[in-house]
Design goal:
CATH class of the largest domain in chain A: Alpha Beta
Shape of chain A: globular
Largest interface: A-B, 99 and 84 residues
Oligomer: homodimer
Distance between the termini of chain A: 13 Å
Strand order of the largest sheet of chain A: 1-2-6-3-7-17
CATH architecture of the largest domain in chain A: 3-Layer(aba) Sandwich
Helix content of chain A: 25-40%
Structural class of chain A: alpha+beta
Chain lengths: 459, 459
């Protein structure tokens, strides 16, 4: 049996074992945004170390940052000429609230309808384990065709605030020929997908403060400008009637879509009703003049991710709240500068906020959008790998999501990432009842094995 | 000496005795919200019974409710034609925390600078004792000109949850010609005050539902209408640029202020900077064309008391929330029908909500506004009583708040309440170091004596 076939055989043989490792990984509630889970973050990084060790990789380092640690590991091929692949992943997960909407404990993985349900199953503990599985299946043949480097961070879900300094500091260590980032997904179980574009992200918290304490709405109502209404006015003004964002200069740096790009979008077999079904939204609505896939993949957005003011319990409490807060997240497209957007938002607020309140704007970590060329050798290697497992050519897709790390790595390591992953649109990542489609995930392990051999030039 | 003079003489003679009774009453820590004080609530109701008995009223009933008991008492006049006054009060008090801010034990009344300091001194044990004192001073003359009924509840400070069923059940028992509610206050020691208007309240919860789960704002952002933005649009549209409420027909039933009413408002010695100081708001803003006191006292409002959507924790979570909710409270003015307002709000939403979401509107219990004609015999009786004690005509004040019990009684007993009381703005009710201005309180006893005779038509 040729080495490649042997590795594929190993991969298939060990499916259950890999799934068990994944389940163990999911049990660790490594929620990066919540300080109460700091210990779990540590546990998750140690767990990764133990799996890497188990797979015969001895050089594993848990490296401190200002925030959560980075797990770095490497294994060199005996072939001195071997190319180097750097595999990126994040071992942190999103929060789980609202907990009451979960049908099972988010940290007690359960299999239901061919899916593994649990927080992080798809985003992206499943993808990390798929890469490690592909590595192990190859290493069991006795030889590896590439030098493997792994970098797993614990802060992706909070915007990777400490990854940039880490990359800067460890530039040499991270030298490689290709970066594999499996944090993207597929369009459907039958449609292997390569993501060649990502949107960027900028994220803000806007606080509006009125009276210095909650007021009795009878004693003062009528003479006091309600901070929740001021916030609603500001939010409402952020889009015009064509659903375009109104921040001054917001579209100035946006590159218009070419005819060719618009044609790529037309090939993607996702219909409006697919999106309606996946989201459960009664109807779609987006920027005028663009299809939903274009709106998601290639146009910038402004969304409210959270809003809080006053009394939110059962029943009624008759107050004018002292303050109102909104979380504002913007998805940006290539060439939009997060820092400029901060100033655009600030200018918008300054121009529209009344004198009856004070306000504060906090910016969270964000990142630039990215786009890559589909004729690059690593993209071709991945394309062929996916084709050999699925029996058809993959589609190229510009994703709506943001992987700031892709932009950071491009900037600091001067390397494009090749983006794939075996999550599906209905995996409910970031939502209750996140799950991973196991059949697709298993195919993914095989595709990764094929990719590594393809990229190494091993027939 | 005429009967009235004799009663006034008795009142003055017994000031110290009444004050001792009040001090004894304050010593009982009847905090209704705290289960640890359940026994004290019982003690307070028994204490009231003992005072009523001491004053020669034998028909005193401690009547159970689902919560704390109601003390009911009555004494009929020997005059078969006598009118009946129903005197309302509450014998429960607010909690005392933060205890460390009290300069003396809240339940060990002490006199300081002409004030009796202690929890409940002003709100409203002092007002109850003033009514009982006035009754006794009259009864000592050997004859009472009215039938007296007393209803003292023990749950006002927790929103009178069991008063409505009690009133329903005891409608017959509570029949009367006038209700006296001494739970309002005076503007200053030199300004006798009659509250002749209260705003009503209608309260709603509006729920906007978009996607059936929280969505990843990258994966779907751009093509999905964000429910938090839909809610903000709806809220923002509820006021126009003059800060008038835009619900269709909202002002149709509002009775314009008369020149005389506007002049009454001008007499009230409360400035814009007083309101700014009391609220801590950076600036005032209300309906165009009205002064802040008019906006609060005589104009209807729409306020957002609470708002919730999506992620509200620390940091960032990049979602399109599945839903957004607002608590909407409206203070209404006389002649506005809470039920019509429900339909106006519903119509507004129907006309403005997009097809991208579904919505639900829940209405909570509310009540009509009340205003009493200052020419009503009971108001004239009170006005003359205050004038004869203070030597000047009282001010009429329309309050912005709603006293639920006034609305309940109006609805169930079909009687307006006449609102007065001898508390002052600096009595610190609900706060540490609550106190009662004794000189004003003593004048109050005399004014109540005058009121009872005036209302009975006794010269």
């Amino acid at each position: 049996m040729a080495t490649r076939e042997e590795a594929l055989f190993n991969g298939k043989q060990n499916y259950n074992y890999y799934q068990e490792l994944l389940q163990e990984f999911i049990r660790i509630p490594s929620i990066s945004t919540d300080p109460n889970h700091k210990e779990d973050i540590k546990l998750a990084s140690n767990y990764l170390k133990s799996v890497l060790n188990k797979f015969g990789i001895t050089d594993v380092r848990i490296m401190d940052t200002e925030g959560h640690p980075v797990v770095y590991a490497e294994k060199r091929s005996t072939n001195q000429q071997a190319l180097t692949v750097l595999i990126y992943g994040h071992y942190d997960v999103q929060p789980v609230d609202p907990l009451e909407l979960w049908e099972s404990n988010p940290f007690e993985p359960t299999v239901k309808d061919g899916r593994l349900v649990g927080r992080g199953a798809s985003d992206m503990k499943g993808q990390i384990i798929a890469c490690l599985a592909a590595y192990q299946a190859i290493s069991l043949t006795g030889t590896i065709p590439l030098n493997f480097k792994f970098i797993f961070e614990g802060e992706e879900e909070i915007g990777s605030p400490n990854l940039t300094p880490f990359l800067e500091k460890n530039k040499e260590l991270l030298q490689c020929d290709v970066i594999l980032n499996p944090d993207a997904g597929m369009i459907s179980p039958d449609t292997p997908t390569i993501v060649n574009g990502l949107r960027g992200l900028t994220y803000f918290e806007l606080m509006i403060k009125g009276p210095d304490h909650d007021l009795h709405s009878g004693t003062f109502g009528g003479a006091i400008h309600n901070p929740a209404i001021v916030l609603a006015d500001l939010i409402s003004g952020m889009h015009d009637s064509d659903n375009r964002v109104t921040l001054p200069g917001f579209y100035d740096d946006v590159i218009p879509l070419t005819e060719r790009e618009r044609n790529e979008f037309l090939k993607i077999p996702v219909t409006d009703s697919d999106i309606k079904r996946q989201t459960g939204a009664p109807a779609l609505l987006g920027e005028k003049g663009y299809s939903p896939l274009e709106q998601i993949g290639a146009r910038p957005t402004l969304d409210i991710s959270g809003m809080l003011s006053g009394f939110i319990g059962e029943g009624s409490k008759t107050i004018i709240p002292s303050w109102a807060m909104a979380k504002i997240g913007m998805r940006t497209v290539p060439n939009q500068d997060p820092n400029k957007i901060y100033h655009q938002l600030k200018q918008y607020i300054e121009e529209n906020v009344p004198k009856t309140v004070t306000w504060e704007l906090k910016q969270f970590a964000g990142g630039w959008a990215s786009i890559s060329d589909t004729t690059n050798p690593e993209v071709v290697a991945l394309s062929n790998a996916l084709e050999s497992v699925w029996g058809k050519k993959p589609l190229y897709k510009r994703e709506g999501g943001s992987i700031p790390v892709v932009a950071f790595m491009q900037k600091i390591l001067n390397k494009d990432s090749v983006l794939t992953g075996f999550g599906l649109p209905d995996d409910k990542i970031h939502s209750p009842n996140e799950s991973l489609h196991l059949e697709t995930w298993k195919k993914g392990i095989l595709a990764l094995i094929e990719f590594f051999y393809n990229f190494a030039g091993v027939k």
